[in-house]
Amino acid sequence: MKYCKLCLQPDTRPNTVFSADRICPACNYFEALQQVDWQERFEILQDLLSKHPRKKGQFHDCIIGVSGGKDSTRQALFLRDKLGINPLLVCLSYPPEQVTERGVSNLSNLIELGFDVVVSAPAPQTWMKLKQEGFRKFTNSFRSTEMALFASVPQIAIKYGINLILWGENPGLQLGDMKTLGRTGYDGNSLRYMNTLSSGLDWMLECGFTKSELVSYVYPGTAEFEKHDLQIVYLGWFLGDWSLVNNAAYSCGNGIEIRTDGVEKTGDLYGVTALDEDFTPINQLIKYYKFGFGRVTDYVNEEIRLGRISRDKGIKLVESYDDAQDEKYIKDYCDYLAISVDDFWEKVRASTNKTLFSVEPDGSIRRKFMVGVGL
User: In the chain, what percentage of residues exceed pLDDT 70?
Assistant: First the structure.
């Protein structure tokens, strides 16, 4: 395990490749941004939008996948109020047992701001069973739900005959998932190669689910994208101030409700992510034990690049909160998966990366690596 020498990105992030001088892709990208002509990029965006005109009889110019959170709220308002674009917002709805009142309120806020919203709601029982199987097989109940989240947007685009999809963050440039890089910095049609989507449906079929039950989880193939002339565009590539904190500040001023449960329970330094449900902090905890980084690492990397905190300060935050957890959230998660808390921890310990962590006789998990240094 090695760390980027500028931020706290470890090379254990799936699909990331450091440069020869030990700098992560996200830091290299950030450095390149300092030379960008943002007015030129704005003109590229305007030209790009003009090449995807609204079809006759349609009311919407493009589609944005939304949760009601910081990124989707900012995107929707930017397109409408800055560019005069009328987007159709598409939201994948969590089942009642998972969605929070905060999430419902934030989606309602988008509607109250004047946007049209289509909600995709996969069958709750299938959703629950897939999460249970995902945890049993991979210690990752989010493998199926993330597939449905990403699939819902192009599926709706095809149904409505809208061929332009606006996405927020480029995971290749801004996080370092190099397999998602497209032909240009804003081309998102390689999103299908990200770690989650590339796993496909085979494991679900092996678990006994039928293809008819899995319609909501099928990301359209390359042939379908070409047939319907679908194009995903990363909007964040065009915005010089695109960042987690900036998007949150902008969206909070436009009515979104943020978390108040604290970083100790969620690993969320500012309470502005995963607003629509409370299972994501558990997934982040499991990710930490598998790869050696969690939610706080993603936060501080961005803050370090923007010069708002030092690398040393970031190390202290990661050491303190990257394994943040809350007994109530874990209990609620286990109840939903129909397992005991003891079964949960037994599975997590079995899936822990033993190169990075040791599992002690008392069941506690201790890291072997030094944050910022590695192994």
Answer: 97
Residue 244, in any domain of the structure? no
Q: List phi, psi (to 5°) of 155.
A: -60, -45
Contacts of residue 164, Cβ cutoff 8 Å, sequence gap at least 6: 49, 52, 61, 62, 63, 157, 231, 233
- The DSSP-derived string for 267-281 is --SSS-SSTTBSSHH
Closest C-alpha to 216, from 51, 53, 94, 80: 94
The alpha-carbon radius of gyration of the chain (Å, integer) is: 20
pLDDT tens-place string over residues 130-153: 999 999 999 999 999 999 999 999
The 10s digit of each residue's pLDDT in 11-46 is: 999 888 999 999 999 999 899 889 999 999 999 999
Q: Record the pTM.
A: 0.90
Show the domain range for 69. 38-238
Question: Crossing angle for the helix pair 280-291 and 341-351, nearest 10 degrees?
Answer: 30
Q: Where are the beta strands (DSSP E) in 28-115?
A: 62-66, 87-92
What is the pLDDT at residue 198? 74
Name the maximum alpha-carbon separation found in the chain: 67
The answer on 261 and 233 residing in a single domain is: no
116 and 51, same structural domain? yes
20 belongs to a structural domain: no
Average pLDDT over residues 299-305: 94
Contacts of 150 (CB under 8 A, 6+ apart): 65, 191, 194, 196, 197, 219
What the block records as the tokens of 310 is: 């030092």
